[in-house]
UniProtKB/TrEMBL annotation:
Organism of origin: mine drainage metagenome
Keyword DNA-binding: yes
Record lineage: unclassified sequences, metagenomes, ecological metagenomes
Molecular function GO terms recorded: DNA binding
Keyword entries, A-Z: DNA integration, DNA recombination, DNA-binding
Tyr recombinase domain residues: 143-326
Pfam families the UniProt entry points to: Phage_int_SAM_1 (PF02899), Phage_integrase (PF00589)
InterPro entries (alphabetical): CB, DNA_brk_join_enz, Integrase-like_cat_sf, Integrase_catalytic, Integrase_recombinase_N, Integrase_SAM-like_N, Tyrosine_recombinase_XerCD
Protein name listed in UniProt: Tyrosine recombinase XerC
């Protein structure tokens, strides 16, 4: 299904379709294009409903879209965990929707259709803030990443303990190498260098499109060897590391959604509903900060494009406030990895 089939409103606005086509031709990731399309399509629908021409909309009319997002009932209703209120979208999602609209108006300015950006955070000028100091339509909330308490982590490990070796290896690698979901699920057998205990995260699988090489521990290596033996019963061909064992997709590459469902199931069973596929990455980077790793070293390990992102883990770790305590935590990372893989020898 193409973008205009999914969002018919885009076909009714020539400039919107043209803008998305440019991004597609520039090779942006499909999920990025889909996110842009969704944000812009929702904005255009509000414009149509309110009788606003999006090409000439002003700031107050864009604010109608913000109000719509902020008051819309959430599809998960009372079961939503991450939101502060229970209605409307989260601050991060609001920002994501507005990025699409802001970039669209940047495009219209470049094309000479408009003189200004009604979103208020227009083109970036080096040495200056966005929008020449104008306030954004929605204040950006900067929250620290959530990580589980030690008790919650132990609960999760207890539930993961009887899981198949594939799932246990995925959890171990997700923490040990601080991998994002797509980076983990798209690993290939030839991405690993067992001699040096490193793995290559290919640029096309990363959020920032920057390739990196990261290490993994000896105990994770033992679990990897056990899984490779098991994998050979499914397929002897090189290629995607993690394979499905379901009847329907037996031997096919594991999808991102399958891993998400595994993690969600385990999180609910452990009574830790906030745990997600990204939590292990947050936990690993926070532990590295606790151990005293330098900012740039953590940024390189994580594949962050900016050290501003990495600073969140420094703050979360409390390193600036507990430098003396950190000196006693040098073995924390190794201890977690050991706990993740301690049952490998008995179950491999």
């Amino acid at each position: 299904m193409n973008i205009e089939e999914k969002w018919p409103v885009l076909g009714r606005h020539e400039r919107a379709a043209e803008w998305l086509t440019i991004w597609t031709n520039l090779g942006r990731a499909p999920r990025t294009i889909d996110a842009y399309a969704r944000g812009l399509a929702e904005y255009l629908l509000v414009c149509e409903r309110e009788g606003v021409d999006p090409l000439t909309a002003n700031r107050s009319q864009v604010a109608l879209f913000v109000r719509e997002l902020a008051t819309r009932p959430h599809r998960r209703g009372v079961n939503v965990v991450a939101l502060d209120s229970g209605v409307g979208l989260s601050n991060a999602t609001l920002q994501q929707r507005l990025v699409s609209v802001r970039l669209f108006y940047d495009f219209l300015i470049e094309e000479g259709v408009r003189d200004s950006n009604p979103v208020g955070r227009g083109r970036y000028t080096p040495g200056r803030h966005f929008g020449a100091g104008s306030r954004p339509l929605v204040a950006r909330m900067v929250k620290l990443p959530w990580i589980p308490s030690e008790a919650e982590w132990l609960q999760l490990l207890e539930v993961f303990r009887p899981e198949p070796i594939r799932n246990r290896l995925m959890l171990a690698l997700a923490y040990d190498s601080a991998l994002r979901r797509e980076e983990l699920c798209t690993l290939r057998t030839d991405d690993f260098d067992p001699a040096h205990r490193t793995l290559r995260v290919r640029a096309e699988t990363t959020k920032t499109r920057r390739e990196r090489v990261v290490p993994y521990s000896a105990s994770t290596g033992v679990l990897l060897a056990g899984y490779l033996d098991h994998r050979s019963t499914l397929s002897r061909a090189r290629g995607p590391l993690f394979l499905s064992e379901s009847r329907r997709n037996h031997g096919d590459p594991l999808t991102l959604w399958t891993w998400s469902k595994v993690v969600r199931r385990v999180a609910l069973a452990a009574g830790v509903p906030r745990f997600s596929t990204h939590t292990t990455r947050h936990l690993c980077l926070t532990d590295l900060a606790r151990m005293g790793w330098e900012l740039h070293a953590i940024a390189t390990f994580a594949g962050h494009q900016s050290t501003e992102t990495t600073l969140r883990y420094i703050h979360l770790s409390g390193r600036e406030l507990s430098a003396q305590l950190n000196r006693s935590m040098a073995h924390l990372h190794a201890q977690r990895v050991s706990m993740l893989t301690e049952i490998a020898e008995t179950q491999v």
